[in-house]
Amino acid sequence: MALDRETVIRTALRVLDEVGLDGLTLRKIAAELNVQAPALYWHFKNKRDLLDDMATTLLVDSLAKFGVPTESTSWTELAESYGRGLRDMLRGHRDGAKMFAGTFLTDDSVYASMERAIGVLTGAGFSPQDAVRGLNTIYCYTIGFTIEEQAVHPRPDERDERYDASDRAERAADLPLVRDTSDEVVGNFDERFEHGLQVIIRGLARATDD
């Protein structure tokens, strides 16, 4: 059977879940496909090229799952769903946020959803520039937050034992402010993410009032 690009990408995502980003190699993907590594170079020039397509595939899958904003979507609803949906997408794979960060999107179809998102914000009074900057702020916040989250939880049901709130509190026993807020650094991820997202949204709301 001929080896196609889509098969390689889907296989790479499965291998990513098994070995993480640092362990992901074209050789390991080829072994999973029962081919020699040079066979993959027909489709991808290097690992960076493959990562670009892996990230794009995740985004396209996510857009198909969550849909695109409609004319009735408010800008705050859009901002919330964008941040939450992006985080859910990234957490769907081990090291998903690290893999996604800095990638080049290879499917031009994703620009249609971006156009609609910008349109929702400009319809609410944002300038196009402020709309893009606002969405990018949410994007960068979500990427960074999820990278840190996945350092503690490589998988949703797995925790790196080094990041233990009680151990951190014990190490900072003489520093009460650090000791008593340990969960705010290595725990409470859902609550903390939502808090930060709402802080951004409130800041954007004030920007439209200026």
Description:
This protein is mainly alpha-helical and 210 residues long. 69% of the residues lie in helices and 0% in strands. It is built from 11 helices and no strands. It has helices at residues 5-23, 26-33, 47-66, 75-91, 96-100, 110-123, 128-152, 165-171, 176-179, 183-186, 189-209. Helix 4 packs antiparallel against helix 11. The mean pLDDT is 93.
Structural class: mainly alpha
Report helical residue fraction.
Answer: 55-70%
* Terminal Cα span: 61 Å
Number of helices: 11
What's the helix and strand layout?
Elements: H1 5-23, H2 26-33, H3 47-66, H4 75-91, H5 96-100, H6 110-123, H7 128-152, H8 165-171, H9 176-179, H10 183-186, H11 189-209
Helix pairs in contact: 1-2, 1-3, 3-4, 4-7, 4-11, 6-7, 7-11
What attributes does this structure have?
single chain, 210 residues, 11 helices, 0% strand
Gist of the model:
With 210 residues, this protein is mainly α.
